[in-house]
Amino acid sequence: MKNIVAMALMLVLSIACTNAQTPKEFSKESLDYKMVSLEGQEITFKDVLKKYKGKTVVIDVWASWCPDCIKGMPKVVNLQKEFTDVVYLFISADKTPEAWKKGIEKYNVNGEHYLLTDGMKGAFGKSIKLDWIPRYMVVDKKGKIALFKAIEADDENLITTLKTLK
């Protein structure tokens, strides 16, 4: 019986530790990071988020060269059909603006678009602990991180988070 209680306690503690490590706010490095808009203008991530304050935002970090990103696009479209009142913010890790813009057109990616200036392993990627793309995040109407990480657009936690924020 003691072993069962000890195992249950370990499970609870490990879940609590995992939740405690999940950021609810973006770091200063993330917020100060300068991205590029489709028009070629530099804009900080902080200013991008300000544009959508008061709205739920799904962030999709992707690249046109990423097979998993492309394979996941139909799931993103399904998400967009189910949650129509959400802003879809696509942040690309493409290597060039030309590849990025061609990818948006080729894969018919609908939403708001920004380009990382230093790829997925650069400053922004490090600031959000980016280790895989696609990477989905959800930001609530107050600008807080409601979901820090999902790697599938049909992830149960992603869907549940969006339903909760309706």
Write the layout of secondary structure elements.
Elements: H1 2-20, H2 28-32, E1 34-37, E2 42-44, H3 45-51, E3 57-62, H4 67-82, E4 87-92, H5 97-106, E5 112-115, H6 123-127, E6 135-139, E7 145-150, H7 156-165
Parallel strand pairs: 3-4, 4-5
Antiparallel strand pairs: 1-2, 1-5, 3-6, 6-7
Characteristics of this structure?
globular, 7 helices, alpha/beta, 166 residues, single chain
Kindly describe this structure:
This protein is of the alpha/beta class and 166 residues long. It has seven helices and seven strands, in the order H-H-E-E-H-E-H-E-H-E-H-E-E-H. The chain has helices at residues 2-20, 28-32, 45-51, 67-82, 97-106, 123-127, 156-165, and strands spanning 34-37, 42-44, 57-62, 87-92, 112-115, 135-139, 145-150. It has a seven-stranded mixed β-sheet with strand order 2-1-5-4-3-6-7. It is globular. 27% of the residues are buried.
**What is the distance, rounded to the nearest whole angstrom, between the alpha carbons of the first and last residues?**
43 Å
Percent helix, as a range, is 40-55%
Strand content: 15-25%
Indicate the structural class: alpha/beta
Q: Average the pLDDT over all residues and give the rounded result.
A: 89
Question: How can the largest sheet be summarized?
Answer: 7 strands, mixed
Please provide a brief summary of the model:
This protein has 166 residues and is of the alpha/beta class.
